[in-house]
Design brief:
binds inosinic acid, binds magnesium ion, alpha/beta, six-stranded mixed β-sheet
């Protein structure tokens, strides 16, 4: 029988402290007419906590959501990104903060950034909870990064594997133990 356990990488208190740091850094940049755009689905928990931290840092952001899906084919270097749910507000002349869970290939964030700039945003910055270094397919750096993430598939704090584990209040790695083998 296989049982799954989660090894914690970043716990609740570490994440909470980092969110306050990021919020203070965003506030220090004195954004104009700030619009936070959370990239669904994986960023929902990070965004919810970060937005409240932004409030504590003295900001009054408006909040929007985009939902994008990216198709990755191992043989094709440029992945395609499709918009499943678009931003509803006008972004013209506004400072936008894109919020995402992980920056990996960078395709999702680069696509969203280009789109919002093309619509006339004044600036588009990005905050990601995790960054996996060395995995970039397109040139983009996040302006605010929670933690550098080891090259592992992580779950929790909004992130899933096959729709599971989004509810976890921490970020971890799924580990599979083969119980039968252990008991032999
Ligand atoms: P990319 O930067 O366009 O490759 O997109 C990164 C997206 O892939 C993230 O927003 C996540 O939704 C997903 N992703 C990448 N790595 C992981 C992981 O380790 N766990 C869960 N989702 C991941
Ligand atoms: Mg995502």
């Amino acid at each position: 029988m296989q049982t799954k356990s989660i090894r914690v990488l970043f716990d609740e208190s570490k994440i909470a402290a980092r969110n306050e740091d990021i919020a203070r850094a965003v506030a220090a940049s004195k954004p104009h007419d700030l619009l936070v755009v959370a990239v669904l689905k994986g960023s929902f928990m990070f965004a919810a906590d970060l937005i409240r931290a932004l409030h504590r840092a003295g900001l009054e952001p408006q909040v929007e959501f985009v939902h994008m899906s990216s198709y990755r084919e191992a043989t094709v270097s440029s992945g395609q990104v499709e918009i499943l749910k678009d931003v509803e507000s006008d972004v013209r002349d506004r400072d936008v903060l894109l919020v995402d869970d992980i920056l990996e290939s960078g395709r999702t964030l680069a696509f969203a950034k280009d789109l919002l700039m093309a619509r006339g945003a004044r600036t588009v910055k990005s905050a990601v909870l995790l960054e996996k270094p060395g995995k970039r397919a397109v040139q983009i750096d996040a302006d605010y990064i929670g933690f550098e993430c080891p090259d592992l598939f992580v779950v929790g704090y909004g992130m899933d594997v096959a729709h599971r584990y989004r509810q976890l209040p921490f970020v971890g790695v799924v580990e599979t133990e083969d119980k039968d083998r252990k008991e032999q």
